[in-house]
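Handout, tutorial session.
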Amino acid sequence: MKKKRLIALTGAGGGIGRALIQSILSDTNWDVLAFSGSLEQSPEFAGRVRVVRNEEIPTLLPSLKDVDTCLHMAFSRRFRSNSDIALSLDFSSVVYKAAKSCGCRVINLSTVGVYAGNSTFPDETTVPTPDSLYSMAKYGSEVLFESYFGDSDVSHTNVRLSGIAQSQRVLPIFIDNAKNVGKIQITGGKQQFSWIDIDDAVAALIALIAFDGDWREIYNVSLDRQRYSIVDLAEIVSAVAESRGFEKTEIEITPSDDKPICVGWNSEAFISDTGWKPRVTIEETIKKMF
């Protein structure tokens, strides 16, 4: 990563954006142009990060010819209103147009949620089957992205990122119950998940930016065909809680006839191209969250 780069980020004030900036400052010599509606210029950025308001994207980004890569991460969270999600698509169009004028490489951050629940491990050739407004909007952003860059010489790719373990509802609830209630209640028990740690997600994005070969049109970034059950998660939380001095946690499972969630994805293409691999275990993630 010795090559000096200027990286433009949208969504720089979000959880992944902030973690990515910190990793760039710690592990690379890259500079950052951070577009955000919430991030403020900070002394800790030490001159390597310039924070700019989102409103300046249409005029500023096309004028900069030294940007190496534009990473578009800004998008409404899945629990926000329908209008917020729609506005995210409008904003994405603004970013794509500006980035195309800039001529830099462009990464669009999407989600593996476009595949919905599955019992197999979809790869990038699997036909998307969005099952929510959010995942449909994310797939729509991919289609819009390709309409801007598909016929151009600009290097570009969509990254379908796995859910981040720290941002899911299950683990914080389990940890809170282990600490304060002494019981974790599970309905079903057959659900299987495949989240990655935020540190692994950030490392993946840095690996992709550092990779100077030809990007593929789409990359899945996930645990790569690994899963863990909801009962495994509860047992790990219980063990960590006990190691931290809390009382032993009771795990109560209530059977359910509901079809269990079963997710996991094939990330072989991304691993092959970039050399990245997920390294943080779910137990390590849970320990960090306590």
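The second record follows below. Compare its token runs with those of the first.
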Amino acid sequence: MSGLCNRVKSVLFVQNGSAILTNKRFIYMKHSLPKTFVLGAFVNLTQGDFEFDIPIDQISSIEDGRQGVSKTILIYTLDGQKYNFYFTKREEWKIAFNNLIQK
């Protein structure tokens, strides 16, 4: 599964990007600020540059989150990290994550 995915890094900063979810890992790719300024909304037509990945077996849980009035998905890892993301087709991503975590 792949699609637009913006990482919420703080209350005031959201990083534009995209993500890929495989049966082995979640991969996040960010769009650089210069690229975003040059391409504007068209940056979402590009994939972005690799930022990090999380092996599925390292995800302890996912939960519904909120950033302002928008719904997000919180990803918790076994080492205590917490990641907050906006996803297009959020419910489809939640189902996919839950299916992989429960295996």
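Points raised in discussion: The chain has a mean pLDDT of 84.
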